[in-house]
Amino acid sequence: MSQNSKMEDMEMKGRHGKRRTKGGLITMPFIFANEVCEKLAVVGFGTNMISYLTEQLHLPLTKAANTITNFNGTASLTPLLGAFISDAYAGRFWTITVASIIWQLGMTSLTLSAVLPRLRPPPCTAEHQVCQEADGGQLAVLFVSLLLAAIGSGGIRPCVVAFGADQFDETNPKEKTRTWTFFNWYYFVMGASILVAVTVLVYIQDNVGWGWGLGVPTMAMFFSVITFVAGYPLYRNLDPVGSPFTRLLQVCVAAFKKRHLRTVSDSNLLYQNDELDAPISVAGRLLHSHELKFLDKAAIVTEEDDIKSSQAPNLWRLNTVHRVEELKSVIRMGPIWAAGIILITAYAQQNTFSLQQAKTMDRRVVKSFQIPAGSMTVFTMSSMLLTIALYDRILIRVARRVTGLDRGITFLQRMWIGFVISILATLVAGFVEVKRKQAAADHGMTNSPHSTIPMSVFWLVPQYSLHGIAEAFMSIGHLEFFYDQAPESMKSTGSALFWTAIAIGNYVSTLLVSLVHKYSAGPDGSNWLPNDNLNKGKLERFYWLITVMQVVNLIYYSFCAKFYTFKPIQIQMKKVNPSEEEGIQLSIRV
To answer: Beta 568-573 vs 284-286: how paired, if at all?
Structure first.
């Protein structure tokens, strides 16, 4: 059976022998519903989590900040496990379904811990009262809840975006351009749900109570699972094709065993087997590239390989060019992947120190209403959504006339713009902190950490907005890059790499905060990042340290992007109507 007919069999199913195309735009509401509810829960709690940990559980500021970044890091690291299970065994649909149920259990447990008095320390009412910190049992309930949520996120995050992109067949000319448009609108819908979380849910948490603040997204997640499963008959489901990590390891072992062989000058002499590669190259076959030539030795045929047409070779000794190129693609993505880590480290400060800055400032919008500190990220989300809409509707069309590319600019160029804007965000944040502390000093509030400084919280809007614009460029470009450049059989794994960069970025933030807090401590008790009084700290120096790190990272990324080689792929294009013939297209996607 040809590769094309296999894809069609996966796409066309129906009752009584009637063939009906699966996938497409009709599936988007079911898929987006799951993502929206997951983001409502994650962001609705995560954005204001610093308030819950410091005000409800009475944790010290640095401990609370590190708890947040550790949770965010773990929740972004577990997608590697979820992607492996999806690509190798369960498939994306079932991975998302089971992970959503696990996530539901975590959120239910977290909601109960906020409702039941025994699961949190007694309230602290007096300003100078020594508050009782949460005990081991109460923290255990918190951490188990967060762990379940992290495991659930591990199955949802890498699979939802890949599953959504699977609904558009890139071998069909009519659907080919919809995939990268999908990423823009995926991020737009995700951003819109985050916008609701940082406004409505945070307001409920601050003014109604944490029980309702966590209960609402918990109930929303329950209904999203039902909605997602209900869409099953409409989905284009691609079957798992075995462990991608096993295939990568087989190439490494085969290349090592043949390390003493000379590389061949003619790539046509390397082993190819279209029938063997058919399940992992439905949309196109990877072509030989000239980088990392030592791996080509895994595809050199020797007498010991004893190839017989009737059976597959020993893949621990001999691999096809397509499988070798799979490993090359993953290795080439590594440097670009690493460049995204520092940007996440900078972005992570919004939910910790930037939020603490907002708490000390005048947050009144009108006399009778003040914006919750946790809702300040509304400016991040608003600027991100606006940038995505302008980019998709205006910037792409303008850039397309200049570059000739369907997507306007390459995702590597899009990421570069995001890096530059992120540098401006942390640079501006440092100057705003200087002004905030000066305002505190001018009004004699340096030693009053809980007093409201007569300086509008809207001074923080530029840094929040710049982070949002940076994310619209960098994060979407990063996600596009991983999905596009990952081997076909590793799309979930490619999406997981995006979340893994977020994980490590959060862990780097934890490490950086701990090191700065430790080594900036003075003999007089001064500290860049004090636990109890931000007015006495040197937070601006911390922001500028991150700025310098980002400048170095931009130089590194520019070098990597300049020498990056896109994967060469031979795409079998489908005929759109009976009068057209199928054809082969050689493509190097950008």
So the answer is: antiparallel
**Encoding tokens for residue 305?**
């390989």
Return the H-helix or E-strand segment holding 300. Answer: none
Q: Record the pTM.
A: 0.74
pLDDT in tens, 283-339: 778 888 888 889 999 888 888 877 766 577 888 888 889 999 989 988 999 999 999
Tokens standing for residue 11: 């796409």
Cα(86)–Cα(239) distance, integer angstroms: 9
How far apart (Å, rounded) are the C-alpha atoms in residues 330 and 245?
A: 11
Would you state the structure tokens that stand for residue 133, as one six-digit string? 């910190």
CA trace torsion 477, 479, 483, 486 (10° rounding) = 90
Length of the chain: 590
Distance CA(402)–CA(400), nearest Å, equals 5
What's the token pair of residue 222? 């329950």
For residue 26, the 8-state DSSP code is G
| 499 within 8 A of 76, measured Cβ to Cβ | yes
Which residues are 317's β-sheet partners? none
Helices (H), 264-377: 274-277, 321-347, 353-359
Of 481, 84, 2, 486, nearest to 282 (Cα)? Answer: 2
> Which amino acid is residue 8, in one-letter code?
E
- Per the CB < 8 A criterion, the answer to whether 374 and 48 are in contact is yes
CA–CA dist 274, 282 (Å, integer)? 10
240-251 pLDDT, tens digit each: 777 788 888 999
List of E strands, 163-296: 284-286
What is the H or E stretch that residue 571 is in?
A: strand 568-573
Query: In terms of DSSP bridges, do strands 361-362 and 453-456 run parallel, antiparallel, or are they unpaired?
Result: parallel
